[in-house]
Amino acid sequence: MTCVCDVCFRHCQIEEGKTGACGARVNRNGKIEALGYGKITSLALDPIEKKPLYHFFPGSIILSIGSFGCNLRCPFCQNYEISWSKEAFSLADRCSYISPQELLMIGKRYQSQGNIGIAFTYNEPLVCYEYVRDCAKLFHEAGMKTVLVSNGTASLKVLDELKEHIDAMNIDLKGFTDRYYTDVLKGDRKMVMDFIEEAVRYCHVELTTLIVPGENDSEAEMRELSSWVASLKDEDGRPVGRKVPLHISRFFPRFHMTEKKPTKVETVYRLCEIARENLDYVHPGNC
């Protein structure tokens, strides 16, 4: 029996025993399940600024975990080994399993070293949102903080499952043209914008835009992107967008995009100047 996954815009029709495009959701007995539930590929104590979050408990550290799989196809992916390469799609049987309860115990163990909670990061966490939800709920009940680092390519139904349990998000707004999202990233810009628009109503949100030469580096695009961010409103309809931090990061050749040169530092700083026309907190990255 073929089932349809409703996590993102792809709406993968998945045959029994097979996985969707993300490599992390499987059809089992006529039901879509998270193949990567509790299967951890990466675990580290990171500075909160590495997420990057500059305006959420700055100077703290947070336990950070990753699983496998992603629903985008960014040709410059920094974590392709666990995201969408052939190697990533074979990780299901080779990962360590950590239950939500065990993860909480690990998080508590590192409180003595300054750990404030848990960050779901490295691959795309929302392809296994059920694990994020279950773990974040436990961490909240224990009085610890929860962070999601995501590409934002998920339905509002998924966000509804998480919004009570997540304190802060860094969401990639990778560009501001449909061409770039569709042709280069194999994604959906509107879904990401809808996700961001809803997320700012419920938790602290910071955004990241990686500047790729010749793709999303024009002043006009950054002016349009930052203007849209500035228009965001909170749950009561009050404007909050100017206060949403934006991280504008420098690209370096990676994975399937090695022919391009790194983004010029002066380009990043110029685009930061443009974004500051609309936003109060703009930070250059990788410079």
Would you summarize the structure shown here?
With 287 residues, the protein is an alpha/beta fold.
Helix content: 25-40%
General form: globular
What structural class do helix, strand and pairing data support? Answer: alpha/beta
Query: Which class in CATH terms?
Result: Alpha Beta
Q: CA-to-CA gap between the ends?
A: 50 Å
- CATH homologous superfamily classification: Aldolase class I
Main sheet properties: 8 strands, mixed
CATH-derived topology: TIM Barrel
Poorly predicted ranges (pLDDT <50, ≥5 residues)? none
Q: Return the CATH architecture.
A: Alpha-Beta Barrel
Count the E strands. 14
**How do the SSEs run, as a string of H and E?**
EEEEEEEHEHEHEHEHHEHEHE
**Count of the separate structural domains:** 1
> How many DSSP H or I helices?
8
Average pLDDT over all residues: 95
Fold blueprint:
Blueprint lengths: L2 E2 L8 E2 L10 E4 L2 E4 L4 E2 L1 E6 L13 E6 L13 H4 L12 E2 L2 H10 L5 E6 L8 H13 L3 E6 L5 H7 L5 E5 L5 H7 L4 H11 L4 E8 L7 H12 L15 E5 L14 H11 L6 E4 L2
Parallel strand pairs: 7-9, 9-10, 10-11, 11-12, 12-13, 13-14
Antiparallel strand pairs: 1-2, 3-4, 5-8, 6-7
